[in-house]
């Protein structure tokens, strides 16, 4: 098996160590005033100098020199991108787009509610946000699935203007798969801009880029910090950090599946977090064996090994109660449950970006084939945030229709509450309608 050079942390504990939780929340650099000040300078530079600042920052950070007119990807470039991808790739993008569209439409349709009681009709109506900006990581990598997950829900919500920003390669190009995915999903504008400068351009606008009402999508620490800073003036989806999976398992689980899922999570980046919490010492030993066996042969092995060494962990608990308590405290982006009674465990998980049930539900399923959105809160933020959906691109508006009969039934309650809050004219606005019979006829 060669030199494994793998030292995944393994311990027996009733609860997660506090220092382990702190490790995954934020790195010291991300929390530092200096780091935030550097991001703020980028944002202020874009606010002050517009397109010129975008050109400067793109040359500095992405090592490519653009002219201002090249910031937006042209329709000709998008058409050319189709010639650089194959039909299987196009088919796969269309497949995941249709799956995601179907699920998002179902969510959207279920929100249109109406109730009538005591002569009062109340409707829940949704109206789209005017414009959104979707950030898609890029540069050396391509994430067409992120294009789908961020833009399709906006399209289903009826957002009239959708803009995508993605960093260019050193040659000044955006990966053709991203451009093709954007076209298939009906994106209106694509810009070859990355990092904090892209977030600033979407938030405040430049000569060539109109600002948007909301910014969504995952990114690196600069993108995350920039989203946090501009959120005072433009809406964002959620804070996000390194990707993470937490697998809950008992003696019924397949240790090879667990090892494979931890490795697949680790290939996201060196700061990815793959964890296992189990009630079985045997499973813990076997998973560790398979991790060491597999890691010497996997693609992206250096990255995988570093993520497992730095952030990978296995915790052995005495029972399901301890395992569930640890899972809720960790509040992972992805929670896989491989136990004899997975649904019973799932009912008790209160904090997770998503829950994957059983041995045949890896994170890969939710990322590429389930139709559920894989843009999810990380770093414990799923305690208060949900994953991205069509609801993030629409505003809820109540539509209310009253009647004289309905007002009469409510009059007594309204009088009591308006008196308590010293708002007498609120009550009189209702009393006027009830007490004056045929007022319109008298006025006539």
What does this structure look like?
By secondary structure, this protein is α/β, with parallel strands linked by helices. The protein folds into 3 domains: 9-24 and 241-386, Rossmann fold, CATH 3.40.50; 32-238, 3-Layer(aba) Sandwich (Rossmann fold), CATH 3.40.50; 403-443, no CATH class. The chain is 48% helix and 16% strand. The chain is built from 19 helices and 14 strands. It has helices at 18-25, 28-31, 33-49, 51-62, 75-82, 87-110, 144-157, 176-184, 195-204, 221-230, 255-266, 281-295, 301-311, 320-330, 342-347, 363-368, 404-420, 424-435, 439-443, and strands spanning 9-12, 113-117, 120-128, 131-135, 161-165, 189-191, 214-216, 235-236, 244-249, 273-278, 313-316, 334-338, 354-357, 394-401. It has a 6-stranded parallel sheet, with helices on both faces. Helix 3 (33-49) packs across helix 4 and helix 4 runs antiparallel to helix 9. The N and C termini lie far apart (96 Å). The model has no long low-confidence stretch (mean pLDDT 92).
